[in-house]
Amino acid sequence: MNISSKYDSFGERVFDVFNYLFLTLFALITVMPFVYIIAGSFATEVELIERKFFLFPRDPSFNAYKYIFSSDTIFRSILNSVYITVVGTMTNLAFTLTMAYSLSRKDLMGRNFFMNLIIFSMLFSGGMIPGYLVVKGLGLLNSYAAVILPGAISAFNLIIIKNFFQNLPAGLEEAARIDGCSDFGVFWRIVLPLSKPIIATFGLFYAVGHWNNFFSALLYLNDNKKWPLQVMLREIVILSQFAAGDMSAMDPEFVEPPDQAVKMAVIVVGTVPILCVYPFLQKHFAKGVLLGSIKG
Amino acid sequence: METTIHTTDHMKSEQRRSRWAKFKKDLWLYILLFPGLVYFIIFKYLPMWGVVIAFQDYSPFLGVFGSKWVGFEHFRNFFNNPDFFRLLRNTLILAVYDLVFFFPAPIIAALMLNEIRVGIFKRIVQTAIYVPHFISMVIVASMTYVFLTTNGGVINELVYMITGQKINFLGDPAWFRPLIIMQIMWKETGWGTIIFLAALSSVDVEQYEAAIVDGATRWQRLWYITLPAISSTIVILLILRLGNFLDTGFEQIFLMTNSLNRSVADVFDTYVYFVGITQGAFSYSTAVGLFKSVVGIILIYGSNYFAKKLGHEGII
Asked: Does A170 touch chain B (CB under 8 A)?
């Protein structure tokens, strides 16, 4: 709102000051924990004891990071997370885009039935245990497929993408069909290239979901060699049940990093990828949220 | 409007043939539909059918078809179990806290952001407050542990400097609910503002200008122009929230639960996990989950019905 402020009374100006202060505080409370965690991951034992709170370490030490990468525990869980995220997102997009396109065609016989099937699944679910038993029955326990397949389609995303496809200009598709394109050709050569922004948006949606996913891995993966980073994070930071590194692999002179710094370093490793894609996320996600609020 | 149509065999087969022709014409579309359809059948509808084990003494060796039927026994056991009231109480208290403290937070933040006139300041604040939405619950819980532990956590050190005592935030049951609400407020308040800011951006600036000419103060403008502009959004989100009233966020509760705060931390979802997956009581825990799902669907339809009665657009 760009409205001139010359009519403001004294009370309104006090409000303005308070408003700016409050929002600044809100932004700081949001950002500070990250800054402190990053600073703390570079701190030495002495500093953590002497200075209670700091945002810049006095003499930064990389020992915590050297330590957590001294064994392959963290490294492997990162690779697992990357694998699940990449393969999972591709699976999501393949399943969601194909189904969304066929349902976007209004003349499809049985379309209403399929749509109702999808909408009902958003309202009612069998619950955790029957879902677990299905995965178990398929013999997928302890495999990455168990983490990827049960969430292959988000009904919510599917409906938004379907609505997006429906609103594409029909003329292009018709022209392609007259030129002898099959339905698959239209989908592959016309619809998908026109939908690059929305594919990027929902690809990011799904990818962040996979990177952050903890529950399916907890439920379906027993073998700790297959654990993604989120599960490993909990074991190390919250339960303190796993050593993040291996001291025996280090030089004799290597100073063992403080436990707190190690935990913070592990948290940083889990957060940085998200912060790296955040600029893209912010741009695309806001769009996604608003797309979702349009009924169609 | 009963019109009798005499359908001869000839017409029926004609119909069938045209359906078949349509199916053949759209064959590619059905091929594209197929993987998604199989997904919904296997991972959504098969588990729905699987809830029948709530009425059985399900044994993995006998399977769904071989296990003994016991009717509502598991439900009776659950309702007669003292756990039931503890779970209901914990779930409801958390849900009410959420509604009272968290629900209004994004609305207030959006209104405050809307009063900001310096564009760059607004953008910086927005950029900062959206970040936690993308951070996993595991990271949020991990940070909470690192900050609050009595074993060198920075917040506890500060508390110690001021009061000379440490507080066992993570173990004390009295701190469990405040922590849950604070976490969710920290994580989602900023993100929640987006939908309200979008509704606010569609308000015609001329309305404000006219109000200023008429001598309306900023409070009056807020009350008579801004708030009505977002009231329908508020109602829709409230319906959605009431529809999911019992959903307390499994991951968050699970991550913050420990042996010391179990008495206040257990909710339906985590109970199903502990009893079903950890202890292997499949039928009983499915019954608990089914109870929650059924209450959930009643809540969704109920709140939708009331919203329509009140003249708002429903969500279903």
From this structure: no
Q: Which pLDDT belongs to residue A296?
A: 34
Length of chain B: 316
Q: What phi and psi values does residue A224 have, to the nearest 5 degrees?
A: -70, -10
Sequence spans of domains, chain A: 8-61, 70-296
Judged by CB atoms within 8 Å, which residues 78-107 of A form the interface with B? Answer: 94-96, 98-99, 101-103, 105, 107
Question: Least CA distance to B42: which residue of chain A?
Answer: A134
Interchain CB contact of A174 with B (< 8 Å): no
Contact check, Cβ <8 Å, A267/B142: yes
A98: nearest CA partner in chain B:
B32
Residue B2 has pLDDT above 50, yes or no: no
pLDDT over threshold 80, residue B250 = yes
How long, in residues, is chain A?
296
Does residue A113 belong to the interface with chain B, where contact is any CB pair within 8 Å? no
Q: Which residue from B47, B143, B293 is facing A267, i.e. has the nearest CB?
A: B143
Instruction: State whether CATH 3.40.30.10 applies to domain A70-296.
Output: no
Boundaries of every domain in chain B: 9-69, 81-134+184-309
Q: Chain A contact for B62, CB < 8 A? A: no
Joined tokens for residue A254: 């290597």
* Mean pLDDT, rounded, for A143-156: 95
Q: What pTM did the predictor assign?
A: 0.89
Q: How confident is the model at residue B6 (pLDDT cuts 50, 70, 90)?
A: low
- Within an 8 Å CB–CB cutoff, is residue A56 touching chain B? no
Query: Is B40 close to A212, i.e. CB distance below 8 A?
Result: no
What pLDDT, on a 0 to 100 scale, did the predictor assign at position B3?
Answer: 47
Pick the CATH number of B81-134+184-309 from 1.10.3720.10, 3.30.457.10, 1.10.260.40, 3.90.650.10: 1.10.3720.10
- Decide if B26 and A30 are in contact by the 8 Å CB cutoff: no
- The span from the first CA to the last CA of chain A, in angstroms, equals 30
Checking B303-312 for CB contacts under 8 A at 24+ apart, the result is B303/B238, B303/B239, B303/B242, B303/B243, B304/B239, B304/B243, B306/B239, B307/B235, B307/B236, B307/B239, B310/B235, B312/B232, B312/B235, B312/B236, B312/B239
ipTM (interface predicted TM): 0.89
